[in-house]
Automatic annotation (TrEMBL):
It holds the Pfam family DUF1007. It comes from the Bacteria. This is DUF1007 family protein.
Amino acid sequence: MAHPHIFVDAKFEAVGGADGNLSALRHIWRFDEVFSFSSSVLLDFDKNENMTLDSPELEAVAETVSASLSKYSYYTNITVDGKAVALGKPDAIKATYVDQSATRWGHARVSRVSEQR
């Protein structure tokens, strides 16, 4: 059985601190409606079976995504002079469900950038 393709609109923002160093990264991922509906997102998390994701269900999605992404450094790798820069745990990972599409966003703190220089 073939693995289905997932289409994602991804946005990325780098945030500079007052000291001029990189202080945070922001990611927004908007998954297509096929993934959002047919995958475990709606089918597994829509506990009240109303074909949408309510606040408690969205919180459960965000918790699951956060745990999963942390294992992979939030799919973000940063290096300075060839050395890896540590990412702190995101302040928040939130999930929304609008127009039959799941959106997840996160804000990861960057640590040790100035120490790497």
